[in-house]
Amino acid sequence: MKDRYLPLAATVFVFAALFLSGGAMFKHFLSTLVLGDLLADNAFIIIAAIGATFVIISGGIDLSIGSTIGFVGVVMAHLVSQGWHPLAAGAAMIAFGAVYGGCVGWLIDACEIQPFIITLAGLFLLRGACFMVSLDSVPIQHPFVDAFAGWRIPLPGDGFLASSAVVMLLALAGGVVIAHFTRFGTNVYAIGGDPASARLMGVPIRRTTMMVYALGGFYSALAGVIYALYTASGYPLAASGVELDAIAAVVLGGTLLTGGVGLVVGTLFGGLILGLISTIIDFDGSLTSAWARVIVGVLLLVFILAQRMIVGSLMHRRAS
Amino acid sequence: MRRLGAILGQPGEARAVWPLLALALILAVDGVLTPGFFTVRVVEGHLFGSLIDVVYRAMPTAVVALGMAVVIGTKGIDLSVGAVIAICGAVITWRLHMGDPPVLVLAAALAAGLLCGLWNGLLVALLDIQPIVATLILMVSGRGIAQMIDLLYGGTDPSFTSDFFAALSTGHLAMLPSRLFLGAGIFALLWLLMRRTAFGLFIEAVGGNAAAADLAGINARAIKLAAYLVSGLCAGFSGVVITADTHTSDPVSAGLYIELDAILAVVIGGGSLAGGRVYLGLTVLGALVIQCLTTSILMSGVPPEYNLVVKAVVVLIVLLMQSRKLRVLMARAFSSPGAGSP
Questions:
Q1: What is the pLDDT of residue A20?
Q2: Interface of A with B (CB under 8 A)
């Protein structure tokens, strides 16, 4: 089963190579300050991508991540302006995300609606709901938000681990435990690998599908809460298109979109690679966003081809 | 009640019923909410009215959706069509700035669409990459490529004027918008290709079961490649119409989210993402449902911020109506216990 870790090794290698080449190009790049910023700036994408990892391992897809983040932020800002404590508002929104995801999971399994289409409808629904709550950016003003922004763990060197990065790492640890140390996690891999066999082996398909999308909704909503706290505002257009970044992070992390294969840890590095590319482009100054898009595309291609070779040989061995 | 159960249980034969019903419902609501919705007047020698406007605005999405229907028929998906539209826009602007004759510029734009289709097709057919990932690559990088093409002529002034392109997109022919003739031509050609040659049969065979089709002697790889070429070309045509309409190359937002509307159009038209079926006419109907809905919301005086929510709810209702499993469940609930079980 060493093959299982090959894609992860490739992802970590690319991350290290990118980080070191950034260090070779720019002064002060190889520092805990840059690393800490990288973790903090991309925390919400990585949190959302952890949820997407479960959904994708189960053989599904979730296109409503960006809209969920935007919706959670706007409603949270609204609730706080009504006098709610940000933590209470955040908890309510996370509960909403999980329940919403569970309903989506029920629709997918009970009504046999394709995940791509139903979560696409969810993308429109939640983004539209954002506009119904507010058309403008709403600031979140509360002592807790300032405290959250100020709280940090110093790292050796000048760097520090911001609170959002800490939440992200905790969410990651939770994801790893769920994926690899619970029966639910095993079921997710089972229905993603081969739904028919999973059903025959007695895996509860309905419950697992509902829980997968509930978990996806939970992580998307958590990402929304972190994003709202990090930016101290709710903006109805926030995080448009983040679902694609999340899916790209999952793919770069070595998870197969066919389902059944992947590691939650890989998603962390996949997300960090995406963040690193934009950091390098920021440092350079002469490169444009056009380059960021093309580089991400090329990286995706290289990764998918590498995975095809690794997994192709694995599948071949298993099939024969 | 038992008859209602039977209708709900077996509508497979008349699959045009559901999208037509949706369109009729939306139009009926429009007729009530907006007086004069169905009037078509002649203004300055052109037909003018809400219905014409719906078809006019639906055309670019419908053309993209036709290509998408073919790709989805092979059990594939093409997420890159929006990016292809951006690339075509950049190519048109670049070549016009270089002073090429308009016909050559049109050829270059369509060639760019075909090239994008070829790229997607090679990734899917030759390298066996899952369609959603294969086309995600061009979707992510395509707008970057369009920005780079814009740099070829300096990129400082991405607007252009061209009578030829204006005539293709916003001009009129025999009282009707000229782009409707372009769309009808594309539909007719594609329909002939799908229904009067073996190509359509091959597409549905490959989508239904690629391995079986391969064993039956169909070159599944070539058929898949051809499907992505068709989709790329359709996106190219749509890119020409959209770019000519705005007179500018806009890599960031040209055709943004059109892939989602196109996929929705195919699904509303009864196409399944599981492949094996291509319904060209119903796909156009699906695109009309989406555009009709958008136009209705704008005209009905509902605040525009409700647009997306209403769209999502209607799409959900159409999806639930089409869900065979839900219909079976409801049919069972409606018919008397014991008698309704098949």
A1: 92
A2: 61, 110-114, 116-118, 120-125, 127-129, 131-132, 135, 244, 247-248, 251, 257-258, 288-294, 296-298, 300-301, 304-305, 308
